[in-house]
Amino acid sequence: MNTLNFDCFLHFFTSVHTSGSDSKNFKTHNVALIFTKHVATRFKMGKKKDIDLKQKDKIMLLTKLGLSYRKIANILRCSPSTCCRVWKQSVTTGIQKPRAQFRKQRKYKERDLRHIRRAAVQRPFATAREIQQDVKCHGIQYSKSQINKILKQHYNLHARRPAKKPILTKSMKKKRLQFAQKFRSFS
Prior knowledge:
By secondary structure, the chain is mainly alpha-helical. The protein contains ten helices and no strands. Mean pLDDT is 76; it is low at 1-5 and 14-43.
């Protein structure tokens, strides 16, 4: 038997189930088991943070058609408890859209952006806290993380920690020069 994707299966399933005289002889459980045997068992089950609206609609449709939670879970590759939870939520509160995963970007004033950039360019080794203190005198109130975001997103200035290197003293410079002169023709 060739495999069908889920949308084709649902279309076939609902069209046969709702058709006239053939719908009396149609066995729901056999088709679901055939689909489960050939398609759904190939994929590994995994955890997902949130179920999308399309998946919730499929759970609702298959539950209304009389399938058990376990069979629905095998078809949709999710746990039976998830199917039960979605069904109970839809019965009590109705199907809810998943929460948005993005935030609106905050709009900053151009004047504030210029002051923050100027403070960062004038003192390249200044921390976000020091820049925050510098721009506070201009009436700009942003947190350290907001200042870091502004510098990254708008001006491509990333926070770096300066390399700590000891300063060369006169005696060190003298020793290096002697070493270089001694081994000038070393190669």
